[in-house]
Amino acid sequence: MVVNQWVPAAHRGDAIGDSARRMREMLLRRGHRAGLFALTIDDDLRGEVRPFADPAARAGDVTILHFALPSPMTEAFASLSGRRVLQYHNVTPARFFAPYDAELFRVATVARQELASLVGRVDLALGDSDFNRSELATLGFSPTGVLPIAVDTERITRAPRQPVLDEVLDDELTNVLFVGRIAPNKRIEDYVRLAEHYKRYVDPHVRMIFVGRPDVVPRYHAAVRALIGAYRMPRERFLFTGPVPDAELAAYYRHADVYVSLSEHEGFCVPLVEAMATDVPVLAYAAGAVPETLGGAGICFAPRDFEYAAEVLGRLVYDDALREAIVAGQRRRRLDFAPARIERALDRMLEDVC
Q: Which pLDDT value is given to residue 13?
């Protein structure tokens, strides 16, 4: 069987593109002819990903569209003669961008309109979480299902050590880690507020580390920086690394005392799986798909009480018994994202659609 996947952009380190490449490997191992096509491709991925203009992109028995952004792929996908599977990776609601970037507000609005335009034009609509699947069902898609993101945790767990970075991070400070874009839905400003409560009531020796693109919403990043200044907090305690290679990302996970998620909207949240794979205890605000991805592991909290969050953060850092119990639970949960389970879900999807 020819099973093609379409992704608007293929960039190394992007969760959607990385998952699609991993799914392609699974399909090939199962004897399928599997193609992966994108509109834009990193130079080092051109051996794995082919241009969308290639006629082979439209020759699949089954085509999977990974949807997270508006693109010319949407209408082309709807007109295919083969079986069509929508894999929905969530669109950040436009309201988060309204105060900061009119163009991103427009793009998010158009993305949801394009998503809705596919209702009744696909054979199967999948979310990578039940949170996303529910949105598809609300829009009118049927049938729907769940196919989790195929997370390649080995790129972190087997990465070579970074002696210089290891030495920098292995000091007297508590390392609190976040991985992802510096974007309004991630509520980066609340890490500043959490740090203020933590240093006031628990321990002043804390460093907030943000690994990910800082330039997605420049006005928002500037507002976060201004808040750090308003609280008169040392700027060196807030480390914005930008995108980093896998080996460096592995070092940040290795030296993280706690992974903290304060996001208000997540459709899956790959870094939670990475944190569980690297035995970093997770403290997360219970919003969107975050509780579902954690599946009872880690510690979720709500409402948004930063005094409480700072207290729990301190316990995760200093209470060895609690930390060990949380890590043990995360080890059990991360088995649900093992490659064999994703492969079985992929098999079921192909059986359902064919």
A: 83
Q: What is the pLDDT of residue 253?
A: 98
Euclidean distance between CA atoms 21 and 4, whole angstroms: 11
pTM, two decimals, is 0.95
**Amino acid 100: pLDDT:** 98
